[in-house]
Amino acid sequence: MKSGVRALGIAESYRGDRCPDRTRSTLAGAVVRADSVLDGLTYGQCTVGGTDATEAVVSVVEDLDRPDVRYVLLGAIAPAWYNVLEPSRIAATVQRPVITVSFEASDGLESGLDEAFSDTDLEHRLEIYRSLPERRTLSINGETVYVRHVGCGADEAAEVVDAFTPSGGRPEPIRVARLAARAGDAYAEPD
Questions:
Q1: What's the pTM value of the predicted model, to 2 decimals?
Q2: Which family does it belong to (predicted)?
């Protein structure tokens, strides 16, 4: 992949243990080139336990207004306490491939959703969750990551994750976005 290709990584941070009255989670977006050069930052928010994360991610991409960003990499599929993302809707709206990358083996979210929600809140989240693309295992730099992709094939998704991961298993756009989200969340904490 050419060194100037750019990806937007999006990650979230919520420090509920330090500020339990907060109802919003901080989203950060980091534009990173394939040669690992940071090329932009942006912020957004979504509701903790809500259903607005997909719209919040779309807003982050649109507010950034960077037509040179070729891929969107998401560092979670259900940020902000099960605010389940819809990668297909994001990809269709922002007109770019969307790749979600998670870092832990999992039996899935259904049991956690079932414990946390009921009635229409549960059904809505389960409907979104069950519509997600298949989760694939990928080995990057000797580490295992789990990838879902929309708007590109499995080989391209693997190439993108590999190209944007200079070391370890966390793609640089997601790693930087996570750092920025944590810093933004800490800054937003009331005194």
A1: 0.95
A2: Belongs to the UPF0215 family.
How far apart CA 134 and CA 130 sit, in angstroms, is 10
Number of structural domains (the chain) is 1
Residue type, 120: T
Report helix angle 87-94 to 53-64, nearest 10.
Answer: 30
DSSP letters, 71-82, are EEEES-SSHHHH
Parent domain of 112? 6-184
Contacts of 144 (CB under 8 A, 6+ apart): 105, 137, 138, 169
Has residue 74 been placed in a domain? yes
Cα dihedral 102, 59, 62, 158 in deg (nearest 10): 10
76 domain-assigned = yes
pLDDT surpassing 70 at residue 190: no
In the chain, alpha helices (H):
53-64, 79-82, 87-94, 110-116, 119-130, 154-163, 172-188
Flag whether pLDDT at 191 surpasses 70: no
Asked if 4 contacts 33 with a C-beta cutoff of 8 angstroms, the reply is yes
Helix (H), strand (E) at residue 35: none
Confidence of residue 19 (pLDDT cuts 50, 70, 90): low
In this predicted model, what pLDDT tens digit does every residue of 67-113 receive, in sequence order?
999 999 999 999 999 999 999 999 999 999 999 999 999 999 999 99
| CATH code where residue 47 lies | 3.30.2170.10
